[in-house]
Amino acid sequence: MESVWWVWSQLFAKGLVYRGYKVMPYSTACNTPLSNFEVNQNYHDVTDPAVFVSFPIDQDPGFSFVAWTTTPWTLPSNLALCANPTEIYVKILDKARDQKFILMEARLCGLYKGEDEYEILEKFPGNTLAGKTYTPLFPYMEHMKATGAFKVCLDKYVTRDAGTGMVHQAPAFGEDDYRVCLANGVFKKGQEPDICPVDPTGKFLSIVTDFNGMYVKDADKHIIKKLKEGGRMVHAGTINHSYPFCWRSDTPLIYRVIPSWFIKVTDLRDKLLANNDKCYWVPEFVKEKRFKELVGRLPGLERIQEQVLGNSHPSLDE
After folding, report:
1. Are 126 and 72 in contact (CB under 8 A)?
2. Strand 233-244 relative to strand 253-263: parallel, antiparallel, unpaired?
3. What is the model's pTM?
4. Torsion angle of alpha carbons 156, 160, 164, 170, nearest 10°?
5. Do the beta carbons of residue 55 and residue 65 sit within 8 Å?
């Protein structure tokens, strides 16, 4: 334990420790983040909501983007949408609903059973959607529209494998959402507490007036009802899938942005990689496949709350 404290004191004295935020798997029952190893210990087959929601476009009256999600509870925190810049998108007329939508051409099959249900009006690459703005689903964070929120961002993590090709972005509750929104100026570093309207126990804060104090998973059905009443629900269904649960409490995990302390690996990366080449690893694959890839990929190594390799120590916040 003393060795761990000494290492941290040396890193801190050298200016290699900094305060930051990261989206991590989180147990609302235990009020703590989990490692990827812990997450993989307890998956359950569950039935969750799967909803398609519309986002009326400011620059194209009469048309709406359509996004799909299996976590309706994240929709009150929506701050952007994301499209793939190289995929083909389409404007369509939904014949049954008499509404006009925009989504990825390859994902029309996600919303429609047959081609006779819609008419394609126009085709174009996804990069033409960059910067287009839309009407927020809820008013809770609409003030952020003036500073860059509620717009379309571009990133190739959006695929044709599921959904509509327009990915709903809630940066407080998704790793890619956080990365994409930060890179596109949807929010700025330091604003993380403002974009996370959920407390450590998984309940909505007072800013989410319609669902204040409600546990996020319990709020799903109420959010769906609210979206139907507001005319923003395109289709509501369910999905059966494998979902991670906390191995301690056996309750559903969520992903949530949390404060943490980081080591500036970028300042040490070249030296770490050079020293790794001099080491003899057993088993050998750890050298190239584990340590080298880890150091080369990560922007920082985080300390999870008050633990370092299972050792408690005085808080750096004090």
Report:
1. no
2. unpaired
3. 0.82
4. -40
5. yes
| Token pair recorded at residue 87 | 């995929």
**What six digits make up the tokens of 291?**
């340590």
104 has pLDDT over 80: yes
Asked if pLDDT for residue 33 goes beyond 90, the answer is: no
Q: Name residues whose C-beta falls within 8 Å of residue 195's C-beta, 6 or more positions apart in sequence.
A: 77, 79, 141, 144, 171, 172, 187, 257
**Each residue's pLDDT tens digit, 184-232:** 999 988 888 889 999 999 999 999 999 999 999 999 999 999 999 999 9
Number of H helices, E strands in the chain: 9, 15
Strand 32-33: give its sheet, edge to edge: 32-33, 17-27, 253-263, 301-303
Distance CA 78, CA 81 (A): 8
DSSP per residue, 95-108: TTTTEEEEEEGGGH
Report strand pairing: 80-83 vs 151-154: parallel
Which residues neighbour 129 within 8 Å (Cβ) at sequence distance 6 or greater?
A: 83, 89, 102, 152, 154
26 and 258 in contact (C-beta within 8 Å)? yes
Query: Nearest-CA neighbor of 84 among 133, 127, 23, 128?
Result: 127
Cα angle 215, 221, 226 (rounded to 5 degrees) comes to 105
* Rounded distance between C-alpha atoms, residue 275 and residue 16, angstroms: 18
